[in-house]
Amino acid sequence: MGTPLSGTQTRVLMRGCCLVSRIHSTLNPAMLIGVCSQTIGAFAKGMLELDHAVQKMVLESLGVRKERVDSHLASLVYDVRLSRYGALAPVTAGDDDEATTYMVAHRDCSMVTTITQHEVEGLQVRGRDGAWITVAPEPGTFAVVAGEMFTVVTNGRVPACVHRVRTPSNRERLSVLFGSSLKHGAVVGALEELVDHGRHPLRFRPCDFDEYVKFRFGQQRPGLNSALQEFCGIGTGTK
Fold this sequence. Notes:
InterPro entries: IPNS-like_FE2OG_OXY (IPR044861), IPNS-like_sf (IPR027443), Iron_ascorbate_oxido_reductase (IPR050231), Oxoglu/Fe-dep_dioxygenase_dom (IPR005123). One of its GO terms (molecular function) is metal ion binding. It comes from Zea mays. This is Fe2OG dioxygenase domain-containing protein. By secondary structure, the chain is of the alpha+beta class. It has one domain (30-232): Jelly Rolls (Sandwich), CATH 2.60.120. 35% of the residues lie in helices and 21% in strands. The chain is built from seven helices and ten strands. It has helices at 7-23, 29-61, 66-74, 97-100, 148-153, 209-217, 227-232, and strands at residues 76-85, 103-106, 112-118, 123-126, 132-134, 143-146, 163-165, 173-182, 187-188, 207-208. It has a four-stranded antiparallel beta sheet with strand order 1-8-3-6. A hairpin with a 5-residue loop joins strand 4 and strand 5 (132-134).
């Protein structure tokens, strides 16, 4: 694997995000691309290596052959997203979760997302017991979030991570997300090595990614815990 981004490179990227958030209204799109492209390109290269390393470790540890892992990774597409959460109003005693939540609890419908936080906490993941765990924005660390398509690929062995964003009062939060997903028109199924008729019977029919996105975000939106199961699940649902 190549050399990952150093802590200094990550800080430069996040400072660049701060700069973009301040000057985007004064630059035309072409100029903005020129300001950001080199830094974001370097970041994306490092994140691609990290994404591949994580997926390889998980899949190979589950017994998937290297050739099949490589084929899976070659079928994916990637994107970089810059996120800015403005400061919320001061929280007072008695405020419920919605008053302090910027992004509600959800699962990503993609494959894997790697999140870089900048100084201000906010990302929370839900544990098996239902409790929310805050992911501290430690320098040089990344949060890797499994999405629903990774659940399909692993035949339910890796559940999609339920997460949300809660921004502290009066503090702006910046983050960068590097995501792997499927090409338009792609149909994904469980990898062959992860299906058997004993302990791990097939849990999902082949999933048309585009159709699943339409189903999940359409007018008849299914519940948080039922979307994937309703669309392509077999037997008992995911939890």
